[in-house]
């Protein structure tokens, strides 16, 4: 793959990674609830989900999913339901955080599960990869070039959210965030519920 083409690919992946959404809210919640380890774990597992969608795209299966209304609708509804469930959990944690710190605790295992499921349950990722990432794939492309596309998407996504988790877990930042945990969880919960409603009722 020419360097100029790869730089364009990296820019597209970076644009998708840094855009605010449920992934950022997830990393924030797990970093706030458990510190650096759960936050970075959520970032890495989210990157694995992104890598799976990138792999489907280079195989041509992403476009196939997008052309199957029933399958795509099922993914959309399941994704919206999962985002809504996470939003309700965050709102409930927000009420408890003002009284007890353990009410918002999280673990790396929980972060890994939710990071992967948020990525897989986000129909915006399918549209993103089909509309943008597929432009970099050609029928004559080598296996190595396709692997580079998948690796680029995973590394940029995981690297960005890992940096977010590390930055938020800094010794001066994390105590400030934890002191306001109940408000942050409430804001995160409202954001996740709003995204779930948007997935169901409005265009992504």
UniProtKB/TrEMBL annotation:
The chain crosses the membrane at residues 41-63, 70-88, 116-136, 143-163, 183-201. It is a multi-pass membrane protein. It is found in: Cell membrane. InterPro entries: LeuE-type. Keywords: Cell membrane, Membrane, Transmembrane, Transmembrane helix. It comes from the Bacteria. Its main location: membrane. This is Amino acid efflux permease RhtB family protein. It comes from Bisbaumannia pacifica. The lineage of its organism: Bacteria, Pseudomonadati, Pseudomonadota, Gammaproteobacteria, Oceanospirillales.
